[in-house]
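Posting for a labmate who doesn't have an account.
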Amino acid sequence: MQRPPDLTDEAWADYRRCQAEDNTLLEQVVDRAAQLENGLISTYDEYHFTWDIDPVPDEQAWPARLKVQAEDFRRAMNELTLLDESGHVPEHPLDQALLDQARHAQRLATTSQRAVTALLEASGLPPALVTSVLVPLSAAATHAASAVQHFAAVAAISNGSSGGRLAEHLQWRMVFHHADGRRELRLAAETSLEATAEFTAQADLRRQLLRRTPSASPPPAQPITATRAAPRQR
């Protein structure tokens, strides 16, 4: 990308540093998908990124990390399914598969809650930034925890069948809970992206304020001195 003419050296260096971080994270996301596809790992959670959300991150790293969190939520929403190809609840036992779905949602919820904790414990971030990001970020953690509850309810209903065919009304309850769980994952993804947008907006605002130079104040007005008129000559 060609450097925009209105960017200062500092702003351009900051942009290139953020772009490099985004590229690194995206490369690792692609690598993680390739390893899963080739059987090198069995779940996405087995892949270890070069970053960790636990250490206090600097401000530039937060948006990229939250984008990955949002992507994980959205991918789980698409991959955690219940119905078979005919649109029905499968007849074969689902206990283990549904428990695995609840575990997967719980891992995502744990990561999201750790992000909230890391934000609250971070030092050096402006308080206004922390409070604005905290609202959507904590909402993401809440939605993720709700998803776990719904997936757990699906597993509990399935487990209550004792190996027999579930009654139709119980199948519908499973379908509703599973749909609600996937909806909560979608909302967790959306609120994670809202938190990312807050970081970006606040950073951009501060950069604009730092680039502004205060206008020169007008010089003080010269004092007005009264002069006594010379007396008239008679």
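Reply:
Got it, the structure tokens are right above this. The two ends are 86 Å apart (CA to CA).
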